[in-house]
TrEMBL record:
InterPro entries associated with the record: LptG (IPR030923), LptG/LptF_permease (IPR005495)
Gene Ontology cellular component list: ATP-binding cassette (ABC) transporter complex
Listed NCBIfam families: LptG_lptG
Protein name stated in the entry: LPS export ABC transporter permease LptG
Transmembrane segments: 12-37, 68-87, 107-125, 283-303, 309-331, 343-361
A biological process term (GO) from this entry: lipopolysaccharide transport
Localization, UniProt: Cell membrane
Record's bilayer topology term: Multi-pass membrane protein
This protein's UniProt keywords: Cell membrane, Membrane, Transmembrane, Transmembrane helix
Amino acid sequence: MQLDFFPSRRLTLYLAKIFIARILAMLAVLVLVLMALDLLSNSGKILEVPGNGQSELLRYGALRVPQLIARFLPYSVLLATLISLVTLNQNSEVVAMKAAGLSAHQVLAPLLLTALVVSVLSFGFNERVVTRATATLKAWEANDFGKVPQDSGVRTNVYFTDGANVLTASTLTGKGDTALMEGVTFYRRSPEGMIVEQIDAASARFVNPGWRLDGITRFDVQSAETSTASSMVVGQNLTPAQIDLAKVDPDALAFWDLSSSIDAYEAAGRRTAELRAKWWHKLSGPLSAFLMPLLGAVAAFGLARSGQLFVRAVIGMAMGFAYFVVDNAALAMGSFGGYPPMLAAWAPFFLFLLIGETVLIRTEE
């Protein structure tokens, strides 16, 4: 009886090789199909902008493909697990390995090791490629696929609070004292949260303290009267530092950059549950690929001639997709404070780790 966790070196390399080949094949199929569908839905928006052509379509594809790879890599690992294990089972290779004295864990060990390497590579790919592509693509989409100046810092549809009052702007450019808002609306609210006055302005600039609104139209809710003014100052408690922290996109920031943003939010007394949950998920998300061989292992064991191989594959697929559903639900709950951020990011991983291990042990018995 073998006491080593891994089978022989030759068998380990053989299983890892076929597993990697199927992961790459499934990932290529998913990305190509989804990229084609994505282009069909967005190519019209890109080409309707004057000056845009084939190069812009290729640019969109280059920015979108990394996002698709990051999102569907765990799915590819799951499908590759099922295809690999079903094939091994049908060819009686699993039976031969079991007859040689290998346990179910030893049969899966090369796949688990390969999936762990994929998880590490996925984390590095997300940090170095996906975050930058996401930031560039979101800035381009916010500008309706028009030309965006390099490092312009343009943000759209921003939203700030000044106590009970709300300040919104269609665009925000610049940082600190040079910040300029355009398409501004200021909602003055009562302590009970009711809007008592709406002030629309063409632009707003920081005048320390407060923000000077220019080109004003005021609407008083109680009297239903409209008036105009050249300028006025609002938001005396809203500082440029708060403006700079107003919109942090965790999908467009690397792990350590997001950590710095969370620290700045906490120092400013801002809510960080959503950012913290996304921060933890930058670790647990790529590691989900490690779970897929364990969840799909049910397809490897059991005699192929029993006629239940297809059912076992469906069960493995259902377990894998159930993980993604629970993971997304838990992350959403953590984003608005329903779960602690760390629990929201890691609870689905450890829950399905225990489920997969339990199913594997029961199958082996």
